[in-house]
Amino acid sequence: MSKNTLKPKILYGENDAALLTQQAAMLERAGYAVEKAEGRRGVEQALPRERYDLVILGHTLTKSDRHHLPYMAKKANQETRVLVLHASGRHHAVDAAIDSRQGEQAVLQAVEELLAAVPA
Questions:
Q1: Measuring CA to CA, which residue among 92, 26, 16 is closest to residue 57?
Q2: Mean pLDDT of the chain
Q3: What angle do CA 39, 40, 42 make, to 5 degrees?
Q4: Residue 4 has pLDDT above 50, yes or no
Q5: Mind listing the pLDDT tens digit for each residue in 35-78?
Q6: 89 pLDDT higher than 70
Q7: Residue 39: left if φ>0, alpha if ψ -120 to 50, beta else—which one?
Q8: pTM score of the predicted model
Q9: Which long-range contacts (CB under 8 A, 24 or more apart) does 104-113 make?
């Protein structure tokens, strides 16, 4: 992927539709291409359809979802980075976890750092 010509592709999953729309809009304003996925089922259905540079799992997903979905993301594409917006502990398939209450700038910084690590 040439970072000069293509926007990084992000899959963003949340259970709360309003929050999903709000967070996706924030990422799009920052210049990212974002596909929204509502709930665990939405994320599971999206993963095999597309190659994502980053999968973001929001804090409204259940603990079980935040545990299961990183495995699914890595199974779909080992090079996909996974960011969990919940500081609920470390998981070996998660590349970064932050507390979303740190605000937009913290989320955008984490996204930027993870995308910098995606192989070209």
A1: 16
A2: 90
A3: 70
A4: no
A5: 999 999 999 999 999 999 999 999 999 999 999 999 999 999 99
A6: no
A7: left
A8: 0.90
A9: 104/26, 107/23, 107/26, 108/26, 108/27, 108/30, 110/83, 111/10, 111/27, 111/30, 111/32, 111/54, 111/56, 111/83
With contact defined as beta carbons under 8 Å apart, do 84 and 39 qualify?
no
What's the pLDDT score for residue 5?
52
Tokens of 101: 């209450």
Token pair for 74 = 């890595």
Q: Please give the domain boundaries of the chain with CATH numbers for all domains.
A: 9-116 (3.40.50.2300)
d(CA 39, CA 20): 10
- Terminal-residue alpha carbon distance, the chain: 5
CA distance linking residue 86 with residue 99, whole number of Å: 5
| Overall average pLDDT of the 24-38 stretch | 96
Six token digits for residue 98: 């932050």
Tell me the C-alpha to C-alpha distance, in Å, between residue 89 and each of 11, 48, 81, 94, 96: 21, 27, 17, 10, 10
